[in-house]
Input
Amino acid sequence: MNYDYHKYSYRTRKRRKLRRSRDGVIWGVCKGLANWIDAPVGMVRITYLILLIATGFFPFGLAYILAALFMPLEDSLWD
Output
C-alpha cells in the first residue's frame, strides 16, 4: 500500500479555527472541539464528563461556560 505520510503532516494541513457548533446538545462547545480535533463527538463528551466529575465543577465547568461565551459560532451555510 502506498501511503503518503506528508499528506497529513502538521505543516501541510489546513489550519481550522475553533468554533462552537450550531447543532450541539447544550451550547455546541464539545461538538465544536470534536470537529476541530477530528475526533468523535461522543468520545469528547464522555471525556469531558469524566473530567468534570473527577475534578469537581470548578475547572472544567468554568472552562465550558467561558468557552460557550467567548467561542464564536461556526459559519452557517445559509448566510
About this structure: The chain has three helices and no strands. The CA atoms of residues 51 and 57 lie 9 Å apart. Residues 17-70 form one domain. The helical segments are 29-37, 41-55, 57-70.
